[in-house]
Amino acid sequence: MSQTKLQEILGLLKGSVQVEGKRVKIIDEKVLKDNISALIYQGVFGDDTTKAETRWLIWEIAQTLGIRPASIHELYMARGRGEAPINFTVPAMNLRMLAYDSARAVFRAAMKIDAGAFIFEIARSEIGYTDQRPTEYVSAVLAAAIKEGYRGPVFIQGDHFQASAKKFKQDPESEIKAIKELIEEAVAAGFYNIDIDTSTLVDISKPDLDEQQKLNYELCAEFTRFIREKQPAGVTISVGGEIGEVGERNSTEEDLEAFMKGFNRVKGDVVGVSKLSIQTGTHHGGVVLPDGTLAQVAIDFDVLKRLGELARKEYGLGGVVQHGASTLPDSAFHKFVEVQTCEVHLATAFQSMIIEHQAVPESLRQEMYEWLKVNAASEKKSSDTEAQFIYKTRKKAVGPFKKHFWDLPEKSLKAIGEDLEKHFAFLFEQLNIKGTKAIVEKFIKAPEIHHAEPLEVKAGKKESTEDLAD
Questions:
Q1: pLDDT computed for residue 284 by the predictor
Q2: What backbone phi and psi angles, to 5 degrees, belong to 20?
Q3: What is the pLDDT of residues 389-407, one digit of tens each?
Q4: Helix (H, G, I), strand (E, B) or coil at 18
Q5: How far, in Å, CA of 199 to CA of 219, rounded?
Q6: Please, what is the Cα angle at 3 between 16 and 185, to 5 degrees?
Q7: What is the CATH number of domain 69-355+408-443?
Q8: Alpha carbon distances (Å) from 307 to 175, 300, 320, 325
Q9: Pick from 377, 381, 383, 392: which is nearest to 285 by CA?
Q10: Which of 290-299, 378-387, 420-429 has the highest mean pLDDT?
Q11: Mean per-residue pLDDT of the chain
Q12: Domain positions in the chain
């Protein structure tokens, strides 16, 4: 650790924090809050040394303040045992854009209703096209918690750590290695919740259900064992499995049983999964109509109810997970609670709110869209209208235009943040997470974990995400 660089970084905090040895001391929390935005900006856009030391400092400040990455495993298992209520659904939010400002809006909305059961997540595909490696994402979330005065466990999740069916077919060992490397990087960064998705390898052409799910449950078990080897002392990482690929046929009780029986048979003596993601009729990002609007989504809530009950009663899991839900009509969200859904994943709506927000200059939007016409041209189908093409591909411009959005005027960022907060508040009300901070405190113990040195800043290899889910 460079003392010169560290002192330079500490200067951004105006004397509010001191480093004594390898621990931090908070001198003035108000001054810290006033200046944490400048710190996270350097953690995202500084040179590699600045990024590494800034992220280390944010982690250590958060640990000192009692803001600690945690696993939701014990809460979910308590639901499976019938010891925790199942009258709320945990929102898992993929923050593709303005992660710091978006997370601030999440914490503000949560603190107003004493909510604690909510998850920040990012998928393997999103890590690539949003240009947010795990240490950056964790730092943005923790900095947001510091800024808003949040305290307690913070759940950060690797969403869809997914096997590419195409790459697996070409070179299975390389694809397994790539996922393990991502797991190791994510766990070191503070991702203590990881959704393994090998459902892409399910082969429904096989007549026997066990054979259909075999590669799925065997690889999920292998990755679960690997996660258990890498998790820090005092943490049982929440691992999720997946039995049905989003966009394909709906999952059945028989699918769930085939997966769980096979998984439990081969996983060995390690702690298993705490939840299962299933398919109920949605598509990631929604189905885009020719005019660029979204088609109405029809979720089979009965599937969620039936498979959730089976997961809890027969296998002791927290329940089942709904993917691809952020493009649903507002009137649908309360139904997740009614059918006792464990967790619901939300992403595209937040991205759309930011890109389409009136505080974003039209010139910036058009610059993004022109970039897409050149750099994502190969993804345009002959049947796509321009509006469909732009809507489906604009997520690919998030990384290249990340700094443009972070550099928006403070007034614009404030307006975007306020509207995001209203949206999060609505979702939290519909999903009934009011008062869940007490439930989290009852079941979750987040250990104090310190890093002796800054984690390496990894650029991450550029990989194709064409068949990976968000």
A1: 45
A2: -115, 105
A3: 999 999 999 999 999 999 9
A4: strand
A5: 10
A6: 90
A7: 3.20.20.70
A8: 30, 11, 7, 17
A9: 392
A10: 420-429
A11: 93
A12: 3-65, 69-355+408-443, 362-402
